[in-house]
Specification:
Structural class: mainly alpha
Protein name: Factor of DNA methylation 1-5/IDN2 domain-containing protein
Organism: Aegilops tauschii subsp. strangulata (Goatgrass)
Distance between the termini: 11 Å
Strand order of the largest sheet: 1-4-5
Shape: elongated
GO biological process, one term: gene silencing by siRNA-directed DNA methylation
Largest sheet: 3 strands, antiparallel
Strand content: 5-15%
Radius of gyration: 41 Å
Helix content: over 70%
InterPro entries: FDM1-5/IDN2 (IPR045177), FDM1-5/IDN2_XH (IPR005379)
Length: 331
Amino acid sequence: MAEAGDASGGWLARLSGLGSYVCSKMNYHEYCSHEYTGIHTALHGLLEEKEKVEQEHKARLQLIAAKEELVKRNEELEAEIQSLKRKLQASEASDTPAQGSGREHNQSGRQVQITSVQKRKRQSEGHAGEDAEEHEAAEILCVMNSHEQGLSAELRDVREETSNINAELIKGFLDMGGVGRQNITVKYMGQLSERPFLLACLRKFLRKEAEAEASRLCKFWQEQLMNPEWYPFKCDTTGGISEETINDDDVKLQELRATWGEESYKALVKALVNSFLELKECGKLSDRTIVAQLWNFKEDRKATLSESVEYVCSKVKSLSNKNVRTSTCGY
């Protein structure tokens, strides 16, 4: 009795510590998830803003190029006009007006040159400012990318630790006889239940023979289910929406219907479909591997780590109290 009490106390202490550890890790996981989401959103917004700035910069460059082309064309036209004026003045007037015109032209030329230099300077200053903005944006992106990578690594570590805790809980449930009629226990995802096969067999055989036949049938269809090449579904499209349904033309299913009748066929196909869905939910359709999963049978869903730890602790505590009462009665 004392050894049983010590073992129960050890389990209780271990699982209580595990429960506290799980809660702290889950809180940290939630914090990292929120932080990661915030940074990812900010980074996405920054990338969109960067793309917008680049598009605006490209548009400005195109506009500058168009303006430069227009200025160049205007200068060419101005030069042609001045040349025509000089020729006209040379033919109708004396050299003095022509020299005055030349000075005016030189002055105009110098002014155009000064204006052009000033314009290029302003453009150069504008490009420098744009380059500085792009450089700053690139540095911010680099820092945020680095932070995001760090958080991704932390999230991977947290997920790995959570997976290890989940495996430890499953082992604990199995060691304590976790398979049975309990609110939370271990469910093997993808494993067929023998019950629908037994109900089908009871329609044709006596109890003992029905149990033997149900066991044989369940084993046979479990083997079919584990075969990755067998996929008894088809894709139906209704109203533009595609949906996978059971393929009643499948050879194995046709044999099942012919042998066991419509009522048993529907019940057994329902069991097969449920197992397929479980494998799909666990991502095991490709290799058809059965997966142990903590399951809340009361609510028919996956059990969370926190409620699994709480449930185990309550069971261990109940067992510990029972052992104490038994020990007391023995004395």
